[in-house]
Amino acid sequence: MSKEDYYNTLGVDRSSSDDEIKKAYRKKAMKFHPDRNKGDKGAEKEFKKINEAYYILKDKEKKAQYDQFGHQAFENGGAGFKDFNFSGGFSDIFEEMFGDFDDDMGGIFGGGKRSTRRQSSSREYGADLRYDMDVSLEEIYSGKKIVVHVPTKIQCNTCRGNGHEKNSKPENCPTCEGHGSVRASQGFFTIQQTCPECRGEGSIIKNPCDDCSGTGRVDKKKSLSVEIPSGVENGTRIRLSGEGEAGYKGGPSGDLYIFIKEKPHSIFKREEENLYCKAPIPMMTATLGGEIEVPTLDGSIVKVKIPAGTQSGNNFRLSEKGMPIFRQNGKGDLFLEAFVETPVNLSSKQKDLLKKFIGDKNTKTTSPQSESFFDRLKDLWNKK
Fold first, then answer.
1. For 269-341, which CATH class?
2. Which of 41, 122, 248, 320 has its CA 20 to 30 A from that of 341?
């Protein structure tokens, strides 16, 4: 049975450029890759065919021989494909696709030299940390520096983060011979993996530091001063670059993220830049009018005029007595909701005076809301 034309196998013309041939190969290799077609013998066969075709057509000399003599150029002892050791891994195919491969036969089909590029480094970034900071409304109002104590990992002072004893050095990893990667056969293919012995670094520490056990870092509670901006909003995240955990074996440190958690306040409720509170007003002040004193977050006392006849639920607005506006000039407002306080623990004399007041025939005009409420109830009952 005659072999299929290599150009037809890749779906290109004989006049196609090297880039067009390579693009066609990549497309078909992705489509028929055994990892994407597990157990499909037809896809595996097609995968071999396109690799055979590309192996010939990507090489200018072999391509010229094939253009002149066809398949016969590589038969009967020629530089044929039938004796080639097709044991390369899927990773090698993708190295070809994305530029990380040897441009000889070994890069695609195995049998070539091991890549000297390390797959990864054991000098890993340290972990990012989160710290929830409880902050009072007063501290947010004024802005403040607060010292926090964060459990973390810091660089080992004994070995300065390199993980080995003084006067000793890392040695070449015997498993990967310093390459940082190893090849593992999985049936028909070979897969390149990070070396499990050295974790991709290419070297191992035979004499680890006693203080950090070779990791280059130790546990410690670190004290940091954090600037709380005036008017900062609840839930705001503050990033402290490089203040997270130290990296593994001298790697870069992670970051620390401070999350602002506003504590509930006993008097004020905050909504963005505005403050709200309920202000108790003595009954006589609400009845006759007068003044009440209201504390503010800056420590001052504001006197508020209460008009005669003030009822519970009446609102008063104090301009610019709220929270500072975050990263802007100015302040919000303070809103007071009045609630009239009923007197308690009255003396006999006070009770007698109130009884006389209630018995006065003119009291109907002093409680218009009550009268209106009961009048509406009477109308409702009369309609039934």
1. mainly beta
2. 320
User: Tell me: the pLDDT tens digits for 309-362?
Assistant: 899 999 999 999 999 998 888 999 999 999 998 888 888 898 888 788 776 655
Look-up of token digits 């597990």: 38
The alpha helices in the chain, defined as continuous H runs, are 6-10, 18-32, 41-57, 60-69, 90-98, 105-109, 137-142, 283-288, 348-359, 368-383
CA distances from 352 to 287, 360, 370 (A): 18, 12, 22
State the DSSP string of 57-90.
Answer: HTSHHHHHHHHHHGGGGGSTTSS-STTS-----H
CATH topology of domain 129-262: Chaperone, DNAj Protein; Chain A (2.10.230)
Residues 6+ apart with CB under 8 A from 201: 118, 121, 122, 123, 170, 173, 180, 249
Q: Number of H helices and number of E strands within the chain?
A: 10, 15
d(CA 302, CA 200): 68
Specify the pLDDT at position 261.
Answer: 94
Q: How much helix, strand and coil, in percent to the nearest 5, is found in the chain?
A: 30, 25, 45
Which range, of 24-38, 88-102, 207-221, 271-285, averages the lowest pLDDT? 88-102
Q: What φ, ψ does residue 70 adopt, rounded to 5°? A: 70, -150
CA contacts within 13 A on the Cβ side of 54: 28
- Which residues are CB-contacts of 154 (< 8 A; sequence separation ≥ 6)? 217, 218, 220, 222, 246
Residues in the chain: 384
pLDDT score at 299: 87
User: Treating both helix axes as pointing N-terminal to C-terminal, what angle do 18-32 and 41-57 enclose, rounded to 10 degrees?
Assistant: 160
Where exactly does CATH 2.10.230.10 map onto the chain? 129-262
Task: List, by residue range, all CATH 1.10.287.110 domains of the chain.
Answer: 6-109
Give me the pLDDT at residue 72, please: 78
Specify the pLDDT at position 101. Answer: 36
CA distance 172 to 302: 75
- Homologous superfamily of 6-109: DnaJ domain (1.10.287.110)
Residues of the chain with CATH 2.60.260.20: 269-341
Total Cβ atoms within 10 A of residue 299: 9
- In the chain the first and final C-alpha atoms are separated, in Å, by 104
